[in-house]
């Protein structure tokens, strides 16, 4: 921190002190939410590691890359923003920029790989069923190698890392293409292979998914009563598709647009505040992705609920003020609440409480809830399955 580069004008903030304070505050919020969300997601994945499906490896890898960005960028960006200048010197600036590119591109490439795997499983199930955990691990390694090529490039003089135009962070030197051919080729390759291509793949993949789900839903509606037209599996696929696309575009498109403006236009005409605002949007993706999967992924959500319930029970049982009778009463009430039935639209019931109780006392409980069936046509044959199977199987196959 005593280097001469610390006093260089390139590391001085070019936006107002108020904007820097606002940016530092937002980064602080992002850091806390990202740490909580990604750590919880990784904890849930660890607890269900024996039942992880191949596509869920990409969710875990996405959380790892987001957590890496959080731990490597925010601790340096937050104090620099509040100090109104970059505090950590030229070498740290290079490492900061490399980490930002590495983890950012890894997240984007990971989303692209995830969309391809989901498309393969939903649209081409005969091939998707052959996709195993070993394939997923190999593809995850490929994601990191792909991102590493572009992250290490500027360190090998293919492109350059420098301070951001707003001064309190570091990234790719977007001004270099205006006067250097190698930097221009790096920016072109970065835009094509790390933005345009992933964006196209994601849109095509989820478009095919939505079309396939729509077609299968119409086929199911011909053989199932109108009360069960929309299944939970269909809703899950639509939510994840829309959420991932919005997250990708919302987080990275503003930064990509501003960067291309500076790289291929007059860089001196790009306001530093535009880069600062775009950087805020890009860094918000670290907290957005874990929220999407924790809220929209049923098996992750159920595992999280089970873990938190067990933690509450342990804390309560260890409390010196807890009364045994009171504990018995609360447990009875909890089992009573869990046994509340959920009705089908035709008035039948399915006792979820009984099933949950059976998981703990499998030898004492045998409950067979009433089920409705539907005939599913496959060519010239048909088979009879329960409605619950219709809604659950696509969900398991999807992720």
Automatic annotation (TrEMBL):
One of its GO terms (biological process) is phototransduction. Gene3D superfamilies: Rhodopsin 7-helix transmembrane proteins (1.20.1070.10). One of its GO terms (molecular function) is G protein-coupled receptor activity. It comes from the Eukaryota. SUPFAM superfamilies: Family A G protein-coupled receptor-like. CDD domains: 7tmA_Opsin5_neuropsin (cd15074). Residues 37-293 form the G-protein coupled receptors family 1 profile domain. The keyword Ligase does not apply. Keywords: Chromophore, Disulfide bond, G-protein coupled receptor, Glycoprotein, Membrane, Photoreceptor protein, Receptor, Retinal protein, Sensory transduction, Transducer, Transmembrane, Transmembrane helix. InterPro entries: GPCR_opsins, GPCR_Rhodpsn, GPCR_Rhodpsn_7TM, Peropsin, Retinal_BS. It is found in: Membrane. The chain crosses the membrane at residues 26-46, 58-82, 94-124, 136-156, 183-213, 233-253, 273-296. It is a multi-pass membrane protein. Its main location: membrane. GO terms for cellular component: membrane. This is Opsin 7, group member d. It comes from Seriola lalandi dorsalis.
